[in-house]
Amino acid sequence: MCHVIVTCRSMLWTLLSIVAAFGELIAFMSSDWLVGFPRTPDHHHHGSSSSSSSAAAGEAYRPTLGIYGRCVKLPHLQHGVLCGPYAVHFGEIASGFWQATSIFLAAGILLLCAVAFISVFTVCFQSIMKKSIFNVCGLLQGIAGLFLILGLMLYPAGWGSDKARLYCGAEAAPYRAGLCSMGWAFYTAAGGTALTFLCAVFSAQAEIATSSDKVQEEIEEGKSLICLL
Question: What is the pTM of this model?
Answer without folding.
Answer: 0.83
